[in-house]
Every structure is written in C-alpha cells, then in structure tokens.
Amino acid sequence: MPYSAAHKARSRERILTSATELFCRYGFDKVSIGQIMKLAKMTHGAFYAHFASKEALYNASIHETLEGSRAARLVKGPLSVKHLTALVANYWNLQELERKHKPGPETVLFNEIGNENAEIRTLFEASYQRMRKMLETRLIALSRLKKLPFEPDRQVIAEKSRAILASLVGAVAIAKSLPEEEERRNILEAAQRQILLMLGVKESELDGMLTAVGQGD
C-alpha cells in the first residue's frame, strides 16, 4: 500500500529539518546524505524518494527556512539602532556559535566561503545579496528618522552594509577556526565594536550597547 501524501510530506519535512541543522552548522561539504538520514531517523534509501541530490536538498533547506529565520524576524521589528545592532552583531556572536538550538540559514555566509561547487556558490551569492539588501533597507529607514549620524545616501548606505557584512563574516570565519575561546571572543568583540562605530555609537557607549545586545536575545 503506497504512503499517503501526508506521510510523504512529513518525511520530507524530517529530512529538511535534519539537513538544515547539519548544513548550517558544518557546511555543505562536511555533511553526507547518510548523516542527514541518520539524524532524521530514516533509511538512506528513502532520501531519493524526496530529493534528486544533496545539492537539491541544500537548496531546499536554505530557502525553506530563510523567511522564518531570526534575521528575517528582526528586520521586521522596531526601528532603532539597538534593534539593528541585534541583527548585525548579536546574530553572529560567540554565544550564537556555542548554542545547541538550530542555527539560522544565514550561516551559509561563513560556512561556504571558498566553496567551488557552482550551485553552492550561487546560493552563497543569493544569501549575501539578501543580507546586504536587508541591512541597506534598515539603515536607510533609520537615517531618514535621524537615528543614525549620516544621510540616507544609497551609495554611503551600500558601502556601510558591505563593511558590516565583511567584518562579521570575516570575524566569524576566523573565530570558528581558532581553538582558544578567549581569542575567538576577542576577535568577535572587536568586529562588533567596529560595527557599532559604523552605526554611529560613541566610544563611551560601546560597552553598554554590547551588553544590552547580548542580553536582548
């Protein structure tokens, strides 16, 4: 007797959930179909009843969960520098790396740096463009409300968004490769401070802002 449509949908969702968990933590190349199916508590052979390839599953797992991610929710929140800081700084802080709950799919930005797979590179670019545009939209809105110390000039905003992402992704990529927790924390905190300075936070307010962001999770 063939499985019902509802059963097939549940099975597909189990695979997607397991794949997103593993892909976002370890990246495309370090995860096998066998590992995904083991986490989903399903047989290896069941995989191809739902997905044509690991690349197809990766694509689906990223797009399926992107809109429900923490970053997507934050961008719809109140307009404030503190809230923007939560989006661009706290999202990738050291605490986020250490947590055991499901990571957000935007982690593709630092998990897939240098990946030569054409499909993964396309997804990497899409994730980068999405995050950059998200930041630009928020920065423009805040600057128009006079909550940032610069005008809503699109070229200026675009450069700041690129600098923020470069600082974040670079810092996290380095920190993930270091064994010493103290140095990892120092690198990420330095990146956070630079981001806050780019957003117009005064030197005297940095420690308070970082503490507030860390507690706002």
What distance separates the N and C termini?
Answer: 48 Å
Helix content: 55-70%
> Biggest β-sheet, characterized?
none
> Average pLDDT value?
78
**Radius of gyration over alpha carbons?**
19 Å
Summed up, the helix count is: 11
Secondary-structure-based class equals mainly alpha
In short:
The chain is mainly alpha-helical. It has helices at 5-26, 33-39, 54-66, 70-75, 81-88, 94-98, 108-111, 118-144, 154-177, 181-198, 206-215.
Question: Could you characterize what this model shows?
Answer:
The chain is an all-alpha fold. It is 66% helix and 0% strand. The chain has helices at residues 5-26, 33-39, 54-66, 70-75, 81-88, 94-98, 108-111, 118-144, 154-177, 181-198, 206-215. The protein is elongated, with a radius of gyration of 19 Å.
Short descriptors:
217 residues, mainly alpha, elongated
Layout of strands and helices, then pairs:
Blueprint: H1 5-26, H2 33-39, H3 54-66, H4 70-75, H5 81-88, H6 94-98, H7 108-111, H8 118-144, H9 154-177, H10 181-198, H11 206-215
Helix pairs in contact: 1-2, 1-3, 5-11, 8-9, 9-10
